[in-house]
Amino acid sequence: MVMRERNFHGLKPQSDLETPNGASLETRVANALAKDGSLDASNIVVIDVNGQITLRGAVSSKTEARRATEVAGSIDGVSSIVNDLEIVAGNG
């Protein structure tokens, strides 16, 4: 048997990432919140600590706060959610 030197022909090997497109969990949650048409996520900050997502910032209603929790919980990799959102009338 002949052992050859490893050669990748100038290309590094690819590896599967745990998250699609290499996006962090924070980014994926934030993007989902931004795309949701039923809430204004412009004042929401998303923090990830080992799959536990904390939502901080301000929304204009309890309905938006609940919806933010629902959207965040629908993302693969989220193990729990801490909703620290403040309800501020006239936000947005």
How would you describe this structure to a colleague?
- The protein has 92 residues and is an alpha+beta fold.
- It has helices spanning 25-35, 62-73, and strands spanning 44-49, 52-59, 80-87.
- A hairpin with a 2-residue loop joins strand 1 and strand 2.
- The longest helix is centred in the last third of the chain and has 12 residues, at 62-73.
- It is globular.
- The termini are far apart.
- The model is unreliable at 12-22 (pLDDT under 50).
Distance between the termini: 69 Å
Order of helices and strands: HEEHE
Strand order of the largest sheet: 1-2-3
Largest sheet: 3 strands, mixed
Provide a quick synopsis of the model:
The relative contact order is 0.20.
List keywords for this structure.
3-stranded mixed sheet; 2 helices; 25% helix; 92 residues; alpha+beta
Write the layout of secondary structure elements.
Elements: H1 25-35, E1 44-49, E2 52-59, H2 62-73, E3 80-87
Parallel strand pairs: 2-3
Antiparallel strand pairs: 1-2
